[in-house]
Amino acid sequence: MNEIPGTIHFNFRLMIEELLKRGIKLEYIEGSDIVEAEYDGHVEIIANADTSLVPLNYADLLSDKYLLKRYLQKKDVPVCEGRMFDHNELDLALFYAKSKLEFPVVIKPVAGSCGIGVFANIKTDEDFMLFFKEAASTGQGKLLVEKYFAQADDYRFFTTVTGYQAIVKRTPPCVVGDGVSSIHELVQAENNRRRYPRRTCEGEIWLQDIEGARMLSQSGYHYIDVLTEGKILQLRNNSNVYFGGQCEDVTDSVHPSYLKLTSEILHLFPQLKYAGIDLLARDITKPAQRDNYVVSEIEYRVGFSLHTHPGKGIPRNILTPIVDMLFPETKN
Length: 332
Hints:
Layout: H1 10-21, E1 25-29, E2 34-39, E3 42-47, H2 56-62, H3 65-74, E4 82-86, H4 90-101, E5 105-109, E6 119-122, H5 125-136, E7 142-147, E8 153-160, E9 165-171, E10 174-176, H6 183-195, H7 210-218, E11 232-234, E12 246-249, H8 256-266, E13 274-281, E14 293-299, H9 305-308, H10 319-326
Antiparallel strand pairs: 1-2, 2-3, 4-7, 5-6, 5-7, 8-9, 8-13, 9-12, 10-11, 13-14
């Protein structure tokens, strides 16, 4: 393979570029997301950026957010209290949220990615019912209702068994008023800046879906309203870059205790060589303590571009340590 097929998505493309850079021969299986990689008789089959570095049993465990929560609890890792419900158990889930957890809470599919169907900081019965139904409409049969970890920021720790780590902070999308443009125009301008040309992992800001419209209304604004100059308006609770969240590399400002913590968490999964560990933390510049962070998710299918193409901060080529482990003979 000399040219990367246009059908291969950006995340996989980043891995292929790293493989080609090392002189690893690639054969693309047409009509699929599967590549055969070969170097001096060493062959690896890579499917949609999934490699032999991630055993299938861990893929199954990590893709089920409720099972993962229970596993981490058994290992004494701080997580948010929560329960799983069927998509048709709205009344039971609402009763649990109010009587056991107390608002605010989070609703998200047990299986899923990119923040789709995830709704955070839910504070009322009305919003709970609305977002539970919306999460159920994603087609996921099981939903997770858990306590909202307040006054915390969202971090992704990319961690390997070899000791490499890269950390990004993800924040919900926002716009800054200029005293002239409407909210819609500000969002459109920001989306155009992100798309033409596309330089970072940050996607377009979603405004006219249920969460975007709801949050805008609760903030007392409409799409056509003009923000005063310097006014910062948060547009969503979801910080995932798929929905327009902002991403900043903060590797150099993380307290060493968090690096040790996430390394220890990765080692709870023997044979898993790397993962993206999602933490909600109140201040990662200070020592990690049990009351100032929780582990929200652990991703085996890591979003490489969060680190290689952050919106702010230093880009980190996390493909280097991955391919170092996959083809150690090409390391130098």
